[in-house]
Write a structure and sequence with these properties.
alpha+beta, 6-stranded mixed β-sheet, 5 helices, 20% helix, globular, SINA-like_animal
Length: 184
């Protein structure tokens, strides 16, 4: 199905649906969580789409930044999104608050590369929460936006913490997460 966009595999019809679901040449969906955006396009068009259709997303330059999530006490499910640009690539930083069971909320923080899975293997990210006497750190390889935030959460490829932990590190309802991207 994706031969016109570069896929050169020839598969038996029984293997085709499984491959098409993960094919690097399939169109990219809008990676912005929490929106009902149905945009699809090439990898090269993703950043342009984000800058024009999702203008509220801030982009910071550099390998070390602080991702500030404001008003973490907002009720219900909330997504905070920011972009980080370094090493000639763009990374989407996501903090997602979801209700897991009857009033119990959890936070999920992860980094996605605006790129392919193969490109994502070349990077490592570190998320750190700092408090007066506490530190919480998570290190991992970013996922590709092809996989998305929900797959990162499903695979536990993210920093997970509850509301009590968020409040331990928050300052007046705002949570600062130190984000460091490095090359492998």
């Amino acid at each position: 199905q994706y031969a016109t966009t570069g896929c050169s595999l020839t598969l038996h019809h029984t293997e085709k649906p499984k491959h098409e679901a993960i094919c690097e040449y399939r169109p990219y969906s809008c990676p912005c969580p929490g929106t009902s955006c149905d945009w699809e396009g090439s990898l090269e068009a993703v950043m342009s789409h984000l800058m024009h259709a999702h203008k509220s997303i801030t982009t910071l330059q550099g390998e070390d930044i602080i991702f500030l999530a404001t008003d973490i006490n907002l009720p219900g499910a909330v997504d905070w999104v920011m972009m980080q640009s370094c090493f000639g690539h763009h990374f989407m930083l996501v903090l997602k608050k979801q209700e897991k069971c009857e009033g119990h909320q959890q936070f999920f923080a992860t980094v996605l590369l605006i790129g392919t899975r193969k490109q994502a293997e070349n990077f490592q990210y570190r998320l750190e929460l700092h408090g007066s006497c506490h530190r919480l750190t998570w290190e991992a390889s970013p996922c590709s936006i092809h996989d998305g935030v929900n797959m990162a959460i499903r695979n536990s490829n993210c920093l997970v913490f509850d509301t009590a932990t968020a409040h331990l590190f928050a300052d007046n309802g705002n949570l600062g997460i130190n984000v460091t991207i490095s090359m492998c």
